[in-house]
């Protein structure tokens, strides 16, 4: 259990990027691009990478592609960053198979989202997560994002799951600050802000760090926010968080999925990304121009390029 002055350990690092999965122009998996992008992100401030999350287009990549991606990125970054593999599906058996494959490919941990669409009750949800945690030897980060899955991992369920030795963290996209603090006060789970606008707010109440989509294009930004807070300069931490908001809004709240906006900006910045896979569609030129303007505004305010 945490104490008033004790932040839970960060088992997967503090500043994690929900990395896009680069594709070639023909739509094939671009492993060389993935290596180069991973190296870029780690060298500029990310100490963890989440692979094959929603931002990584997990619904449209094959099991073999997911395993190959983990192996390629591990080759690129070595032990300089933790690799968390997204393995969550709507099928418990399939999720367990992906967990084993991720471990064999070299992942350090698993990101497991609540089963979507079927909306199991909380006892079935708890059993699902326990089965996945038992399937491999890797630590698990639960992913609570009811806006996408249609079901909440209720705080009381999370508290019970915290007793499992391999369930160690939560990616929090539930927009429930009270529920988050309830779990933090009763467990030693490491919470990671999964919504970029909430990074500082959750960190201030005891989160371990963040899993950021925006970090694809500003990999060092939220590390600077957390570093400033840890140094006691809360004013600067707040300033840096506020500076990020126009870009966060453009990428995450302007009507396009974060995968689409991140790939549009990465392409504009000359970094590996490639197209998105259907049913997603690329950002049009007007949307890309707006994204680039928000990025350049942040770069100017920071006095340097963020990429």
Automatic annotation (TrEMBL):
InterPro entries: Aldolase_TIM (IPR013785), DapA (IPR005263), DapA-like (IPR002220), Schiff_base-form_aldolases_AS (IPR020625), Schiff_base-form_aldolases_CS (IPR020624). It is found in: Cytoplasm. The active site is at residues 143, 171. Pathway: Amino-acid biosynthesis; L-lysine biosynthesis via DAP pathway; (S)-tetrahydrodipicolinate from L-aspartate: step 3/4. It catalyses: L-aspartate 4-semialdehyde + pyruvate = (2S,4S)-4-hydroxy-2,3,4,5-tetrahydrodipicolinate + H2O + H(+). Keywords: Amino-acid biosynthesis, Cytoplasm, Diaminopimelate biosynthesis, Lyase, Lysine biosynthesis, Schiff base. GO terms for molecular function: 4-hydroxy-tetrahydrodipicolinate synthase activity. The record marks 54, 117 as: Part of a proton relay during catalysis. It holds the Pfam family DHDPS. Gene3D superfamilies: Aldolase class I. The keyword Amino-acid biosynthesis applies. Its EC number is 4.3.3.7. Pyruvate binds at residues 55, 211. HAMAP family: DapA. Catalyzes the condensation of (S)-aspartate-beta-semialdehyde [(S)-ASA] and pyruvate to 4-hydroxy-tetrahydrodipicolinate (HTPA). Belongs to the DapA family. Homotetramer; dimer of dimers. This is 4-hydroxy-tetrahydrodipicolinate synthase. It comes from Streptomyces tendae.
């Amino acid at each position: 259990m945490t104490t008033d002055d004790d932040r839970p350990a960060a088992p997967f690092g503090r500043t994690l990027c929900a990395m896009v999965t680069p594709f070639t122009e023909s739509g094939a998996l671009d492993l060389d691009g993935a290596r180069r992008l991973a190296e870029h992100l780690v060298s500029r401030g990310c100490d963890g990478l989440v692979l094959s999350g929603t931002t990584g287009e997990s619904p449209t990549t094959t099991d073999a592609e997911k395993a190959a991606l983990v192996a390629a990125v591990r080759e690129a970054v070595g032990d300089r960053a933790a690799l968390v593999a997204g393995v969550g599906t709507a099928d418990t058996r399939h999720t367990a198979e992906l967990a084993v494959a991720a471990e064999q490919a070299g992942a350090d941990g698993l990101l497991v989202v609540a089963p979507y669409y079927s909306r199991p009750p909380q006892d079935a949800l708890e059993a699902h997560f326990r089965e996945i945690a038992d399937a491999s030897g890797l630590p698990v980060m639960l992913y609570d994002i009811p806006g996408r899955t249609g079901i909440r991992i209720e705080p009381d369920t999370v508290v019970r799951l915290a007793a499992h030795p391999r369930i160690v963290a939560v990616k929090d996209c539930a927009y429930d600050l009270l529920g988050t603090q309830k779990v933090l006060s009763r467990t030693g789970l490491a919470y990671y802000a999964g919504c970029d606008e909430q990074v500082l707010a959750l960190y201030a109440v005891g989160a371990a760090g963040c899993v950021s989509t925006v970090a694809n294009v500003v990999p060092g930004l939220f590390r600077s926010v957390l570093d400033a807070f840890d140094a006691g300069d809360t004013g600067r931490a707040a300033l840096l968080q506020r500076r990020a908001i126009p870009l966060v809004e453009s990428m995450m709240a302007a009507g396009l999925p974060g995968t689409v906006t991140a790939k549009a900006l990465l392409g504009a910045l000359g970094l590996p990304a490639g197209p998105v896979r259907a049913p997603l569609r690329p950002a049009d030129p007007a949307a890309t121009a707006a994204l680039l303007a928000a990025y350049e505004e942040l770069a100017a305010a920071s006095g340097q390029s963020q990429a």
